[in-house]
Amino acid sequence: MSLSCDLSVLEELTSNAKQIQDDVLTKILKANANTEYLSRFLEGSSEKELFKKNVPVVSYEDVKPYIDRVANGEPSDILSGKPITAFFRSTGTSSGEKKIFPANDNFEDILLGLALSSLIMSKHVDGYKQGKVMIFKFIQPISTTPCGLPLAPSITIIMKSKNYRSPGKRSTTPDEIIMCTDPKQSMYCQLLCGLVQRDEVVSVGALFASVLVQIIRILEKYWKELCSNIRSGRLSDWITDHCCRDSVSIILGEPNPELADLIENECGQESWQGIVSRLWPKTKCVETIVTGIMAQYIPALEFYSDKLPIVSSIYGSSETFFGLNVNPLCKPQHVSYTFLPNMSYFEFIHVDADGEATGEIVDLVDVKLGAYYEPLVTNYSGSLYRCRVGDVLHVTGFYNNAPQFRFVRRKNTVLSIFVESTTEEDVLKALDRATVVLESSDLMLTGFTCFGDVSTVPGHYVFYLELKAKVNNDTNVLLLDEKVLVEYCCVMEESLSSFYRSLRRKDGPIGPLEVRVVQQGTFDSLMEFFILSRLKFVFVHLLACCGLDTKLDTISPSSYISKRIPVWLV
């Protein structure tokens, strides 16, 4: 299918979802039925019924030995009928373990999905086509597997592929800057290019909300230096990447003291509320993923953008591209994604509200409104056949014949001390409800991590919070009110599940929830550590249960504990 498309393509795909899904499975099976993996179950057949009857539902751990064999140099036809040309490296957000997935060099379906997303934005956001987008993108250095094939996050592999089409003049940032593998230099140069072209920017964003908040924090740190560059027309000497220097110099142009003064005036104000709207006055929306664990950044983004619409456009992973948000201006809490039937063959395991499987597996078009499911993926690259993704989705509607899903959470439990299971969704709901307490003291949450501390008796939940005052002060010292933070602990506990609250009874098996406030800049420092370690810095704020508690304790000067037992008899 051509990448030169209009929204009639979306109508065609979603109207013919069943036929397209059947065609996708047939195509995948014809290409891969004779692979070592599938031939055991299909004996060369491409029949859908045989596939569903004989091919087992698996997890990544089940297929990892096969993937590792290919990565170590054995033939592609262990898994795929087509040559495997690269490996995607996942971010490892669910379990902390980074996974690798074989890929071939055909990314047209993914790029079509991105093109459709852009068309949807143009339809719903006035003036979107007429301006430029300032979407921060970062690639990582490409490493290799033992057999010499490229290994990198999917965005890096795709952007370096022959199929990739640059947004060109629609973007404030030239590709040469995005291709810089030094994230600090790349981020600085992308900010500088965006500031120089401030009057043309209609959209500000990054793939994940955590990245966008981090970029604003970098702007807080470097705005004086950025203004100096604009005032002099000369880029800072510490930017040593030649492609960055050449590209920025063209955009920077001649000295512009008027623009530098304007930016200094905005950034020098006491409060940074609405800084995005003030620096980029024609901005219509903020484009970034705020579903799942990223929902924690919604209050910060609303503060910095003066409540511009926050758009979560796409739902994808290293396993496959899933779908699009066809109602981009909806509230972040109401985001649903319309699955595109041409991306992979999708099946769904029915689960209850807690994410436990009931055993029933249905096709894409047979999911039921209001039900919860975990998706299974059979993808084109031949790396996954009926593989569980680990996400819990809620069916919210249909667009033509294609279902729409709200992302609920990852299946994995985030916290557990006794026999309770506290999920990502539970944690985010508690943080959201406790936000009101912080706002009463003019504070906002800019980052957190958590773990279950079993070194105490009884064990208890510990949350590390990084807080920021909404109004800057000259000393940059955060004034903390013990009553406010203790109340924050109490509201957090009262917002967790009734089962957790029942275990928090007097002399119960779970102790009072504790909040430890880390120093400002702590998560920035962790990000820099992750960058130096060549790890994915996007998720530095999402360090739940990663064994960093001892490091964080050395920079946690303040600790607060819930002082009342939460009510649990509902």
Brief write-up:
By secondary structure, this protein is an alpha+beta fold. It has helices spanning 8-15, 17-32, 36-42, 48-54, 60-71, 108-124, 154-159, 175-178, 183-196, 209-232, 242-252, 257-267, 275-279, 298-305, 424-439, 482-495, 498-503, 522-532, 549-553; strands at residues 86-89, 100-103, 132-136, 143-144, 150-152, 201-208, 285-289, 310-311, 314-316, 321-324, 337-339, 345-351, 357-363, 372-378, 387-388, 391-399, 402-410, 443-453, 460-469, 514-517, 558-561. The protein has three domains: 8-107 and 314-410, no CATH class; 126-137 and 166-308, no CATH class; 424-561.
Looking at this protein, list some descriptive labels.
single chain; 570 residues; alpha+beta; 3 domains; four-stranded mixed β-sheet; 19 helices; 21 strands; globular; GH3_M; GH3_C
